TrEMBL record:
<keyword id="KW-0238">DNA-binding</keyword>
<feature type="domain" description="HTH tetR-type">
    <location>
        <begin position="7"/>
        <end position="67"/>
    </location>
</feature>
<feature type="DNA-binding region" description="H-T-H motif">
    <location>
        <begin position="30"/>
        <end position="49"/>
    </location>
</feature>
<dbReference type="Pfam" id="PF00440">
    <property type="entry name" value="TetR_N"/>
</dbReference>
<dbReference type="InterPro" id="IPR001647">
    <property type="entry name" value="HTH_TetR"/>
</dbReference>
<dbReference type="InterPro" id="IPR009057">
    <property type="entry name" value="Homeodomain-like_sf"/>
</dbReference>
<protein>
    <submittedName>
        <fullName>TetR/AcrR family transcriptional regulator</fullName>
    </submittedName>
</protein>
<dbReference type="InterPro" id="IPR050109">
    <property type="entry name" value="HTH-type_TetR-like_transc_reg"/>
</dbReference>
Length: 222
């Protein structure tokens, strides 16, 4: 008795769509062709993705949800948590760079897809911004939005190097994000806890006031 084959994964459908877009052109590829190549019905495709444009950005929808869930967990250092979230997204694309590069080519060629990519990038930035404001009460909004924008920009710069064919391990992004943390004066290096009743603390002048408060409270156990 033969077993019913498992339906193709979302990743397999995305890969089939990207292959067709590269081979035939985005505008010349129909949903029916994608569904046939992926081995799913037209209705299944629409139920999973909604349309051709959605299949190009399917990974981002999943990653945004995963990033939101990750940031909703407790984190001792909100600044580092944002950087780690960025690395997690990068690792997803670095796991299959060829597929990511084919998608990159398609997005660059289609104006509507480029516009949606801009919106998608802003969604990550806004997510980081909102998280920092919630995690650090009293944080100057300019510090939150500036840090979120810089992390996103650095992430995209490193990711574009990967998209253009370079071999870029996640450690490259980590080092770049370490520099971002140092620029904001919020890198964890050099933090020393003290059990003395009298605490003398020195912080970089550029460190946001809300981060100074957070670190003092952590040192005092408040």
């Amino acid at each position: 008795m033969s077993e019913t084959p498992a339906p193709p994964s979302r990743t397999a459908v995305v890969a089939a769509a990207i292959d067709l877009f590269v081979a035939n052109g985005y505008d010349q590829t129909s949903v029916e062709q994608i569904a046939q190549a992926a081995g799913v019905s037209r209705s299944t495709f629409f139920r999973q993705f909604g349309g051709k444009e959605d299949v190009v950005f399917a990974d981002h929808e999943v990653l945004l949800a995963e990033t939101r869930a990750y940031l909703s967990q407790p984190h001792d250092d909100p600044w580092a948590a944002v950087c780690e979230a960025s690395v997690r997204v990068f690792r997803h694309f670095a796991a299959d760079p060829e597929l990511a590069r084919r998608r990159y080519v398609i997005v660059r060629e289609i104006p509507d897809l480029r516009d949606r990519e801009i919106v998608t990038v802003f969604r990550y930035e806004r997510l980081f911004d909102e998280y920092l404001r919630e995690a650090l009460p009293g944080l100057d909004p300019l510090d939150a939005v500036g840090f979120a924008a810089l992390v996103t920009a650095v992430h995209n710069h490193v990711l574009r190097r990967l998209m253009r064919g370079a071999r870029v391990p996640a450690s490259v992004l980590r080092r770049a994000l370490d520099d971002v943390l140092r620029r904001y004066g919020v890198h964890a290096d050099g933090d020393d806890a003290s059990a003395d009743d009298l605490i003398v603390a020195a912080f970089p002048r550029r460190m946001p006031a809300a981060e100074v408060t957070r670190r003092l409270r952590a040192s005092l156990g408040d």
